[in-house]
Design brief:
The complex is a heterodimer of chains A (about 400) and B (about 350). Chain A is an alpha/beta fold and about 400 residues long. Chain A contains 13 helices and 14 strands. In chain A, helix 4 (about 110-125) links the parallel strand 3 and strand 4 (about 130). In chain A, helix 6 (about 155-170) runs parallel beside helix 7 and helix 12 crosses helix 13 (about 350-355). Chain B has helices spanning about 5-25, 30-55, 65-80, 95-115, 120-140, 145, 175-200, 200-210, 215-220, 225-250, 260-275, 280-295, 305-310, 315-330, 335-355, and strands at about 150-155, 165-170, 170-175, 250-255. In chain B, helix 2 (about 30-55) crosses helix 11 (about 260-275) and helix 7 (about 175-200) packs across helix 8. The chains are: A alpha/beta (about 400), B mainly alpha (about 350).
């Protein structure tokens, strides 16, 4: 016993006496004479692994810029850390990127909850949280409180509002049934849909939530059908959106469908139409920001040609038709633009300043006519979209480019 | 080796380990200390799970859920849930929430131990798995208590010691990461010692009897009901403390923080560490924390060819590497790291007592 306490005492003495090193931080970490280091988390594994294409698309774009000499003679390195869509792992990964790898900025981290989990930390550390890949309204709305955080895509609130306005203007006395994911994402869309309907004769007659962890949405669709609604709004992630179409068809329900942009990609719609057997899909409405690789409209488009050539060269083996790659390239393109503006001596503060004064009307990966724009009082980079209708197996745009003034 | 020499060796090894843990932060970067504190946190959870699974033979695929209970208990006691319309105002310092987190999770574990008495083997595994699966939805269901999917933020709140600024403790100033390290590891070492005291005595013998043969245990006067529920309670309390620390370390809890996969990783951790042993669990904890990182090329970037690192950064890449390493490890060390220790010990012992020729 005596021996043990001696040991413990020795241990404590050593521990107290030992000096401990605190890594000194230079003014702007992550920048060397030849490289500039960005980092972000992405779900490379787990239930949301399909979103990993976003990070891969951005990486492919950076690689193409690096092949041409990089930005101000610096190569852009992009370190992707897997968080399996688990915010606790996002926190660990982002701390690692900031404290150990010393990134210049945290870039393109994916998921609403994941970005929320790291926002306070990054703002405390004054590290840019650049282009958070999530449509939560808070990124733009709370920019004054969180000056180091900025999103990219239109907010879910803006998107939901556009659907509401569309129904209010084009359908008389529509009765809408809503299937929504039981989290901020689904609730943002639902709330905005209602406010977009305003005082028109149309209203939401039923809203059924589902949990991300639930196996299917069959019972929700059955309940929504029994509400007697003639419009079905699907505010869901892809797997559940496909299920919603399939169950509606099996129940013999033929509502007009609104499907949110996250699930309204061509490949998802093709799956939902069950090889043309499922007619519920026909006439669906969604909104879109990105150029869809499967859309014949962009067959000869310069941006889409660039996209295909970069995918062939820097993302060999990846599915070119996966629109999430386009998203990644779009944010990669904007980031390169920002870094170019910073010139030879990039600083973190300079990066945020540049991100808050964006004006790029021609991002080649976004639908023509959609601008990336921020400024005083406007902290939402993309606030426009294109309504489109699923007709004979593909999306057909209609109406002009919509613009969200609210947020 | 006589049991006495074995015990002396054990105590000396443990003391050496304590010294090692105490001085380690002086030799590594501040950030590494933060990572090692996660190893300590997983060690606590593994110690508890091993009492249940390794010593008592009851498989639990739901320990992530007990960690969630501890994590939410700590988070709610610190930040309160009045902001969501709940009844608790919070305000308790982080360190004091940990015993309560252990207690609450332990009580739930005891309660769960009762129905578990009627189940064994695969059926018990399935029942505990169901708890892990149901946990995220349950947390979202009681939004006014838990904040729903958005979760509870702990970063920078005053109840969080060492969240932002350095901590003065015993006349020494610790960085936030070093503070977390010493907090996690002092609890882990105490937990280790307590686990050792439990398993080496009468209770541990009863646990092992239940594991090896329930019939034989009952006929020797061991109460199955008592020891099975006790094992569940102790083990859940360990998980609760680990969960509380996990919430503090992450400065955040939400339902996705404790996914089903966590429960499975914990089980993998005790298998790698060695069922029915304690010292190997340190390696199990290292495995649980680091393998997901190593399998995506982190930290090993300079050791591996670029070609491989590139593959691991593609969708699904890390999962494949994880699986391959796990399979290889089970081939090489079928009884885990603890099994290797035992084998080495046996070999040494045999040599010493081999008759002179």
């Amino acid at each position: 016993m005596r021996f043990r306490s001696t040991l413990v005492a020795t241990a404590l003495t050593i521990a107290v006496a030992a000096p401990f090193a605190i890594a000194g931080s230079s003014a702007d970490p992550g920048v060397t004479s030849t490289t500039i280091l960005l980092g972000g988390t992405s779900p490379l594994t787990g239930p949301a692994a399909s979103y990993a294409s976003v990070a891969r698309g951005a990486k492919a774009y950076f690689d193409s810029v690096n092949a041409k000499g990089g930005v101000a003679k610096r190569k852009i390195e992009y370190d992707i850390v897997d968080d399996a869509y688990n915010p606790a792992l996002t926190v660990q990964g982002v701390r690692r990127l900031v404290e150990q790898d010393k990134v210049f900025a945290v870039f393109n981290t994916l998921g609403t909850e994941s970005n929320l989990a790291i926002r306070d930390y990054l703002n405390q550390m004054k590290v840019p949280q650049l282009f958070a890949a999530s449509g939560a309204t808070t990124w733009g709305r709370d920019a004054a409180k969180y000056p180091w955080t900025i999103g990219f895509q239109p907010s879910y609130a803006a998107e939901g509002f556009v659907y509401g306005r569309y129904v209010a203007q084009n359908m008389k006395k529509a009765k809408i049934a809503v299937l929504f994911q039981n989290d901020d994402y689904g609730k943002d869309l639902l709330g905005a849909l209602k406010s977009g309907l305003g005082r028109s004769g149309s209203k939401v007659v039923a809203a059924e939530p589902y949990q991300v962890t639930s196996p299917d949405v069959g019972s929700q669709i059955a309940k929504l059908k029994s509400s007697g609604a003639n419009v079905l709004a699907i505010f869901a992630t892809p797997t559940f959106a496909i299920q919603a179409y399939v169950f509606a068809n099996r129940l013999g329900w033929k509502p007009k469908v609104i499907v949110n942009g996250v699930s309204g990609t061509s490949n998802i719609m093709a799956l939902a139409s069950e090889g043309g057997k499922n007619k519920v899909v026909e006439g669906s409405i969604t909104t879109n920001v990105l150029k869809d690789p499967t859309d014949p409209r962009w067959k000869n488009d310069a941006g889409m040609k660039l996209y295909r050539s970069l995918m062939a060269k820097y993302a060999k083996g990846a599915n070119v038709n996966d629109v999430y790659h386009v998203y990644g390239m779009a944010v990669g393109y904007e980031t390169v633009g920002l870094l170019r503006r910073l010139g030879a001596n990039p600083t973190r503060a300079g990066l945020m300043k540049a991100a808050r004064s964006l004006n790029d009307p021609r991002n080649p990966f976004l639908v023509t006519g959609i601008a990336v724009k921020t400024g005083p009082g406007d902290n939402f980079p993309v606030q426009q979209g294109q309504l489109q209708r699923w007709t004979n197996g593909r999306w057909v745009p209609f109406g002009g480019i919509w613009q969200s003034k609210r947020n | 080796m006589t049991p006495r020499t074995q015990r002396v060796i054990g105590v000396v090894a443990f003391a050496a380990f304590v010294v090692f843990i105490a001085v380690l932060p002086s030799f590594v970067s501040d950030f590494k200390a933060r990572e090692y504190s996660y190893v300590g946190i997983y060690l606590i959870a593994l110690l508890g799970l091993n009492i249940l699974t390794g010593y008592t033979g009851q498989i639990s695929l739901g320990h992530g859920a007990f960690m969630a209970i501890g994590g939410y208990t700590s988070a709610i006691l610190m930040a309160g849930n009045e902001q969501f319309g709940g009844p608790i105002s919070g305000g308790l310092k982080d360190v004091w929430t940990l015993p309560i987190a252990g207690l609450v999770a332990g009580l739930v574990g005891l309660a769960f131990g009762l129905p578990a008495l009627r189940l064994s083997g695969l059926y018990l595994a399935l029942a505990t798995f169901a708890v892990a699966v149901a946990m995220p939805s349950t947390v979202k269901r009681f939004e006014e208590w838990t904040g729903g999917g958005q979760g509870i933020q702990l970063f920078g709140i005053p109840e969080r010691t060492g969240g932002i600024s350095n901590v003065d403790v015993l006349g020494r100033t610790l960085t936030p990461n070093d503070w977390l390290y010493y907090l996690a590891w002092s609890i882990a070492l105490v937990a280790f010692a307590v686990a050792w005291l439990i398993v080496r005595g009468r209770t541990g013998r009863a646990f092992r009897a239940v594991r090896d043969s329930e019939t034989a245990a009952v006929s020797s006067g061991v109460s199955l009901a008592r020891y099975k529920t006790l094992a569940f309670g102790i083990s859940a309390a360990y998980a609760g403390v680990a969960g509380g620390l996990f919430a503090i370390a992450s400065d955040f809890v939400n339902p996705d923080t404790f996914p089903v996969a966590l429960s499975i990783f914990l089980l993998v951790g005790i298998v790698v560490g060695g069922l029915g042993g304690l010292s190997g669990l340190v390696f199990g904890a290292i495995f649980v924390y680091y393998l997901p990182l190593w399998s995506q090329g982190q930290d090993l970037g300079s050791l591996l060819p670029d070609r491989i690192v590139e593959e691991t950064q593609k969708p699904g890449g890390p999962a494949i590497v994880y699986g391959v390493v796990l399979i290889l490890l089970m081939f090489v060390l079928p009884n885990g790291v603890g099994g290797l220790f035992r084998r080495v010990g046996q070999l040494l012992g045999r040599r010493r007592y081999s008759p002179p020729s």
